[in-house]
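Q&A log
Question type: sequence-to-structure
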Amino acid sequence: MELEAAIRTRRSQHRLIDPAPSDEEFVDLLGWAATAPDHGHLRPWRWILVRGDGRAALGAAFASGAADPEAVRREARKPLRAPLLATLVLVPRRNHRVPDWEQLAASSAMVNSLMLLLHDRGYGSMWRTGPSVDSAGPRLLLHLAPHERIIGWLYVGTPDPTRRAVPRDPVQVGHRVSRFTPPPPVPPRSAVPQGLTSPVP
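Response status: OK
Response body:
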């Protein structure tokens, strides 16, 4: 698939079924996704792959921070929407010349490349965040270090063939693009206006 075609046809897939990429295939695609722009080549991230019964355990961790019984049921079901939940963890390099925000930006660029590569292989994906990224349950379950942070979950699988892909048009973004016009040049300070014997202070 050509890159432009991949960008035009990729969709966030709300319903994903088996098969999902194997661990080996995921790592292979990730190796190419990791070539995305990354100032300093820090790779300030790691992935935790959640499959099978691990999804139910993750659902229980999601539900541990819910406020009412209905929210508990809703949160517990979320990880069951896909056969693979790839958890992206930011592992920032502290006190580095590349600031934390730029390390996060590099991680985001990598995710976008990975989603396009998955689409090219025939897989679907859905990027999800929400309150769970900052709640204690998932952090404890996945054994995160104090300085690590969950950025989000990439739900991965095969698109449900019973769901029709809705065509879409490019976003109208012309109003968000402008051209810089430099100001007129300022006369040099050494220029002496007529009738004066010294530069204007």
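Response note: Helices lie at 3-9, 23-33, 53-63, 69-77, 100-120, 136-141.
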